[in-house]
Amino acid sequence: MEHTPSRATPGASLPAAYLTAETSSFTDFLRVQAPHLLPGSLGGLGSAGPVQARRQVGDLSSPPPHGTTIVAVTFDGGVLVAGDRRATSGNLISQRDMEKVYVTDDYSAVGIAGTAGIALELVRLYTLELSHYEKIEGVTLSLNGKTNKLAALVRGNLDVAMAGLAVLPLFVGLDTAADDPSKAGRIVSYDVVGGRYEERAGFHSVGSGSPYARSALKKLYDPGSDAGTAVRHAVEALYDAADDDSATGGPDLARKIYPSVITITAADGAVHLPDDEAATVAEAVVAERSIQPRG
Asked: Which residue from 208, 200, 187, 175 is spatially nearest to 81, judged by alpha carbons?
C-alpha cells in the first residue's frame, strides 16, 4: 500500500486546510492545524499547572526575563509608543538593549511589558494575525478590530499569567477614519485577563516604572504638541521612571543604548525613530538633568 505522508514534503501538494480560507483569523487556523506553535496557554503551556508552566519557560530558581516600562503619548495628528531597553531577572539585569516596541501594521504598534519570552511570541503572532486578515479579506482591520484581536490573545494567555508569567501590552494606533485628523491617535491598555481600556487622557504607561512615568507625563503632556515635542516628553518620562525604579533602564551614554520610539502619523505611518535622533533627544535630557536633577 502506498504511504501517504502526514505532512507536506518537497514536491508534495499542501493539505487542503492550507488552501481553503475557512477563517480570516490566523490564530484560529493555527489552533486547529498546529496548536503547539501558539504562545503560552494558547498552545503547549495552557494544559500545564503553574509550576510546570514556569519550568517550561525557565528554571524556577531563576525568574524569566521581564520587560519593564512602556509609555504612549498622543500629539497633534498622531501617537507614539516608547520603551526603555532593560530586561530584568529578579534583581539581575538580564539584558540591557531589549527591544520592547514593535510596528504591527501600517498604522499600529505595540509595546510590551511583563514576561519577555511570552510577550515577544504574542506580539509576533499578533502582527501575523493582522497581516493574515488583510490578505484573506482584502482590507485592513478597523482600529477597534485590531484592539479586540489583541485582547483575545491576552485573554488566551490567562492560565500562564496566573502562574506568574503575565504579559501586558500597550497598543497605539491611528484611526484613519477619525472625524478630526488632529485627534486620530488612540491608546489602548489591557489587563491580564484581556480587559481592554481606551486611555482618553492622551498618555499612558505600563510596567514596573509606570507610576513614575505617568506622574511625569501629567506635568509634561500637551495635546497640541508636535511629534518632536511628544518624543521629548516620552523620553523624559522614561528617564523619571528609571530614576525611581531599578528595573527601568535610563539612557546609557557609555554603551550608546537609548529608548526605542515608534511614531505613527497619517503621512508616514508607523515608523521607528532613527537611532541618531533618539540619541540626540536622550543626550539632551541627560545634559539638562545633570544641571537640574529635579530630585
From this structure: 187
